[in-house]
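Feature request, filed as a ticket because there's no other form

It would be nice if the structure record came with a short human-readable summary line next to the tokens. Right now we just get the raw output. Example of a typical job, pasted below so the devs can see what we mean:
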Amino acid sequence: GICFGSSSSWCFCGRAGSPQAARMNASEPCCLCSGGSEDSSPEQATARIAVVTGANKGIGYHTAEQLVKAGGLRVIAACRDPDRGQQAARHLGAEFVQLDISDEGSIGAFVQYIASKYGRLDVLVNNAAIAFKGADPTPFQGQTLPTLRTNFWGTVALTDQLLPLLRRGRSPRVVNVASMAGRLGQVSGSLQRRFSSPALTRDELFALVRKFQDDVAAGRHRQEGWGNSNYGLSKLALIAYTLLVAREEGNAMRANACCPGYCDTDMSSHRGPRSPAEGARNATMLALLRDDGPTGAFVRDMQISEW
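Raw output as currently delivered:
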């Protein structure tokens, strides 16, 4: 794969040895990677506008924190829970805006707020997601729609509605936090070819996800080649959507997906060996990607990886 940087110095702007980069530690991106100034302030009128969903804890919190520290960005912590979101935003030095990506009305209100206040968006990090724990008594069929409603349909709806604002942004970036659980190998060869086709359309992608939902409801998803993971399928579909957006937007935008790794977060019941700050580095790196950086890539451990 293409390596963006080592674990000890992950600045990929080619200035890792500079005084500016030296003041950053391994969990903080060098602001020069996105062409920013070390003296940039989020309060300046020239600040880029960045949205991080699910920013009140875990990967989202640390992604937002790293973006704030990078400078030159006004970071918006978009969270479902107002109390937790406001508390996190205060600690981060970010702006809190309420957002529940499983609710169409909440998405619409959020997009209208960004459009009215800023008129553009420069960075979107789609981090918000849910996963049912293994011990959850909810039947598999009962977990399917809630998982896809947040992890796929809600993320797609938010991104699609924000795309016009991103097109007005400066060096716009879309970063979808996915997972190795979304690997293509979980589904049959026929489905792999359909999801990974460079000719895949929105209608075809959405039809595939709806077929999974229908097959689960009918109890035939395994026979139809889907595997047996609602979370995994939601992330597989999200990666396919990321690649689709990258193809649609071309060089005008950078849209990439990433896997943070197995991290010590609520979602993993704090079993992951990797800190959430370390896991967030992949998303932060892609949010600060230079204009000549990749698009339509899946990044894992700071490298472009096979999906």
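Something like this underneath would help us a lot:
Confidence is low (pLDDT under 50) at residues 1-44.
DSSP finds nine helices and eight strands in the chain.
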